[in-house]
Write a structure and sequence with these properties.
about 220 residues, binds zinc ion, about 40% helix, binds D-xylitol-5-phosphate, 8 strands, alpha/beta
């Protein structure tokens, strides 16, 4: 199933509650929440307080993207504040299996993430253990960048490997997804689509979401 995950890094924070109401009305299933530590990426964004408040406001799936070093140290607090899916970066830990086990111990969905510079092969040994793989379409840290086209080859490789090993896997793609490249992204095999700029463009959330859904419906009918 193809799912949209609006990245609230692009949100107008003063109106987040209204934005969430629009997502709910339009049956958008996920909210993508970026967590940054200023070290793994040169920026800061949301933390546990924001996630706790968002959790109180909605039953939507909270798709939490940890761009932090040593994620194992932080998994517990993010599980406890209401995340449903926890994505950690392969590049940020030397114990990916432990991170996955830890996330699952708290009853959450585990997602392993790779940067544009990391090969698809890095995550293949973990596909059996995770619920989702997140392929970064841009160098993480900032919204509004252009999709690096080569990252789609990694989506293709991961999808082909999962299919050939009968692994039921969500593949999420994050960064630079726009209506113009969405069809290619879906064809490559991604099924969880993060949209920051694509959804918040000109602050026409409903119109932008409807436009993305139209492309998804057309792809599904092909
Ligand atoms: C970037 C973040 C993304 C970002 C995507 O590091 O992980 O979630 O908000 O924004 P767009 O869709 O504008 O590239
Ligand atoms: Zn993200």
């Amino acid at each position: 199933m193809i799912k949209l995950s609006p990245s609230i890094l692009a949100s107008n924070m003063m109106h987040l509650e209204d934005e969430i109401k629009i997502f709910e009305k339009m049956k958008v299933p996920y909210i993508h929440i970026d967590v940054m530590d200023g070290l793994f990426v040169p920026n800061f964004s949301f933390g546990t307080v924001a996630i706790k408040n968002i959790r109180k406001a909605t039953d939507m799936v909270l798709d939490v993207h940890l761009m932090v070093y040593d994620p194992i140290k932080n998994i517990k607090i993010f599980c406890q504040c209401g995340a449903d899916i926890i994505s950690f970066h392969f590049e940020a830990t030397n114990k990916p299996l432990k991170a996955i086990e830890y996330i699952k111990k708290y009853g959450k969905k585990a997602c392993i993430t790779i940067n544009p510079s990391t090969m698809a092969g890095a995550v293949l040994p973990y596909l059996d253990s995770v619920d989702q793989v997140l392929v970064m379409g841009v160098v993480p840290g900032f919204g509004g960048q252009g999709l690096i086209p080569e990252t789609l080859n990694k989506v293709r490789k991961i999808r082909a490997y999962a299919d050939s090993h009968n692994i039921d896997l969500d593949i999420e793609i994050d960064g630079g997804i726009l209506p113009e490249n969405l069809k290619n992204v879906l064809e490559a095999g991604a099924n969880v689509i993060v949209g920051g700029s694509a959804i918040y463009k000109d602050y026409k959330l409903e119109e932008n979401i409807e436009n993305l859904y139209k492309i998804i419906r057309e792809y599904e009918q092909e």
